[in-house]
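[User] At your convenience, examine this fold.
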Amino acid sequence: MATVAQIAANRINAQKSTGPRSVEGKAASSMNAFKHGVDAASIVIPGEDPAAYERMAAEHIHDVGPRTALERFEVDNLIRADWQCRRLVRIEANLYRQLLAEGQTPEEIDVTVLRDSPTGRLLLKVLAQIAYQQRVHSRALAELRRLRREAAQADMDEIESAHEIPELPAMMAEARERYRQRNEPNSTPKPAPAAALDNPALRL
């Protein structure tokens, strides 16, 4: 297991690394973590652009930089929810166009139309799914922030424990005992120096 000093040295070295500088290198590097999560084949349906999905996923991974399996899981949730929202928004636009094609005007698309029209009812379901995917995205983001806070606290605890002085409890106990002895209320008062008693200026 790495020591605290080794961990600190690794972090310093990592900060010095500039990483890939070319466009191709950056693109390849950004997709390294993506290979461990959801991929385009598992979520992109016919008619969608796998390259657009991969770019979106790479942006999420670059922004978050997942460092653990749990963080990668939450990033996968972010990516999936984002992509589903984009798909549902396109469906929403198509349903509005369908309503207009059925003879409705933008002013006439109200609650009654959405309730009575099959296209309108489907649109309401799509809107509900968009809201659900947005909640999934928000929960995943909140969980990522919680994991980062816990990791930061664990790092601080490790650093603090590494700098603890093993002898400190014994030293504190010894200091408390010295203080108690100096301030013992029943201790015998120290006699005054004899020279001070022979001083005429101190006589009554």
About this structure: Residues 118-162 form the longest helix (45 residues). Residues 22-36 have pLDDT under 50 and may be disordered. The chain has nine helices and no strands. Residues 20-88+123-165 form one domain.
